[in-house]
Write a structure and sequence with these properties.
alpha/beta; single chain; four-stranded mixed beta sheet; 187 residues
């Protein structure tokens, strides 16, 4: 039996609990930041270059997903993709936000992806990070392909071979002859 499960050797998950600092972001290419619906200066103060991020957030339309996209001024030029949501948001809405943020972050060359929830209780932050991680893993998953050999584009598969056309013609003529024999003639 053929193994159809995709290779997932390129997905590695690391966890670094605690406060985010500039040093920890040196290894991250893209960072998903999830903030409360109405983030304050103290929420942005917990992030590196928080004043810059808050200025970028103010320029974007409220309720957009992602809320803003920018780059940090570090060696990696870390891409920040941020979204806002309430702490009591449903799992479906969290996963939808996660899908949108991951899609925006991986539109460029995907590398190492970090996930950060700022301004939530510990339980709410753990739930949010778990759902964002689920969205990231779903985006990285590639479905197995069952196609053996794709048809060559120059070959047409809609026309039957000449031998098949002759056989079809013979069969239809034979059916017409049989019908004619079964019909009662004029009396």
């Amino acid at each position: 039996m053929q193994n159809i499960t995709p290779a997932s050797h390129d997905i590695r998950i690391f966890q670094k609990p605690g406060r985010i600092d500039s040093k920890s972001l040196e290894t991250v290419d893209q960072l998903l930041v999830i903030l409360p619906d109405k983030p304050t200066k103290t929420h942005f103060g917990k992030l590196p270059q928080g004043a810059k991020l808050q200025a970028v957030y103010r320029k974007h339309a409220p309720g957009s997903a992602p809320a803003f996209i920018t780059r940090l001024a570090n060696k990696k030029q870390t891409l920040i993709v941020a979204g806002t949501q309430a702490a009591d948001t449903s799992a479906f809405d969290r996963l939808t936000l996660g899908r949108k943020l991951v899609a925006a972050a991986t539109a460029q060359k995907a590398g190492s992806l970090g996930i950060c929830a700022v301004g939530f209780t510990a339980d709410a932050a753990a739930t949010i990070v778990r759902d964002m991680l689920s969205a990231a893993l779903a985006a990285a998953f590639s479905l197995p392909s069952t196609a053996r050999n794709a048809p060559h584009p120059s070959r047409s598969r809609s026309l039957p071979s000449p031998g098949a056309m002759k056989t079809t013609a013979r069969v239809s003529c034979a059916c017409a002859t049989d019908r004619a024999r079964r019909r009662p003639g004029p009396t």
